[in-house]
Design goal:
With 348 residues, this protein is an all-alpha fold. It contains 23 helices and no strands. The relative contact order is 0.06.
Length: 348
């Protein structure tokens, strides 16, 4: 997972520096936290580079009529410099100025804005204007820009923007979002069909690693709802998804979410080639024990078809007497169900 998260951070840094992503490939060996810290330093440095001039422009804007300042911003300063000036303005002044700018210009300006500097301005804008600008950014495929403002706008405003989003749009915005809690608040309000569209988009794009990173960042409730839509993708896509979960070892995020997944969906999810691997089975068993998820482990075993039940015979973890006693004591079902299964598989 570390490599994937580092690559995502490199994409964000390239956007910040307006540089080709390939030029920053040497940072792949760095951790996600190190690249994120570098990105924040770059944001500060870019603003500080012309800070005196930017503050002077901001001061001049206070003595000019707001409509005139808006025209100067659109036709003389341009979106990048206007974005820097916005960060130096008083939020109330900037909000009044933004009200005189076209939504098209605000959409051009948004990629150069630093959300941490302009959050009070964005929150002071009319909700309809913010939604309009957000939808323009969606149509322009400015997913990374949108992701930076997920935590800035009200959830209701965000829902107005995503109402026109495709599953592919939602997947891209979610991948680049820095604030999992804010993303989760939006995902909580998405209908199941939109979550299914996200899963389908990940399948269509072979973006299984990205889908797994998304699952790992969300709450158990939302993660469970997303996994519950797994029926929309073909068998080979489920195979790739499980392989990605195993490769990045994000079982601690996925297993708790399986507790409330429909049993038919669970069967479709777990009966793939990848789950016949004894090492994968042992990792699932070990994580279930560490997380005290005996009922989930039982549900997984009951979801297995005959081929996968036979694969359990090779599990070293399930042969542990301590593990079996924990399972029997905590599974929430009688030993009449668990013990015969273990005995039939020659595990007990």
């Amino acid at each position: 997972m570390g490599d994937l998260l580092s690559r995502i951070e490199i994409t964000k840094l390239a956007h910040e520096l307006n540089a080709p992503e390939a030029d920053l490939a040497f940072l792949t060996a760095s951790s996600q936290a190190e690249i994120r810290d570098l990105r924040h330093l770059a944001q500060t440095a870019l603003f500080a580079r012309n800070e005196d001039r930017i503050k002077l422009l901001a001061a001049l804007s206070r003595v000019l009529p707001v409509p005139m300042t808006a025209k100067i911003a659109e036709h003389a300063l341009g979106p990048m410099l206007s974005a820097r000036v916005a960060g130096a303005l008083d939020p109330r002044e900037a909000t009044r100025l933004a009200g005189h700018l076209t939504s098209a210009f605000l959409a051009k300006l948004a990629p150069s804005l630093d959300p941490s500097r302009v959050a009070p301005i964005v929150r002071g804008l009319d909700d309809k204007l913010v939604v309009e600008v957000g939808r323009l950014l969606l149509r322009q495929h400015e997913h990374l820009t949108l992701s930076r403002f997920v935590a800035v706008v009200d959830v209701g405003v965000a829902m107005g923007v995503v109402a026109e989003a495709t599953g592919a749009d939602l997947l891209q915005v979610a991948i680049y979002c820095d604030e999992p809690a804010a993303l989760d608040a939006i995902a909580q309000r998405l209908p199941d069909q939109m979550l299914a569209d996200v899963i389908a988009a990940a399948s269509d794009a072979d973006a299984y690693d990205a889908a797994v990173s998304l699952l790992a960042s969300l709450s158990q409730d939302v993660c469970g709802r997303i996994v519950g839509q797994i029926g929309v993708v073909p068998d080979d896509a489920r195979e790739e998804l499980i392989a990605a979960v195993a490769h990045h070892d994000v079982w601690p995020s996925v297993l708790p979410a399986l507790h409330h997944v429909d049993q038919d969906v669970l069967k479709a999810l777990v009966n793939v080639e990848a789950t016949t691997d004894a090492d994968l089975i042992d990792r699932v068993v070990e994580h279930s024990r560490a997380l005290d998820l005996a009922p989930v482990l039982v549900r997984l075993v009951l979801a297995f078809d005959d081929e996968h039940l036979q694969a359990l015979r090779n599990s070293k973890a399930l042969r542990s007497a301590e593990l079996q006693e924990w399972l029997i004591a905590n599974a929430g079902v009688g030993t009449r169900l668990i013990v015969p299964v273990l005995e039939a598989l020659d595990l007990r």
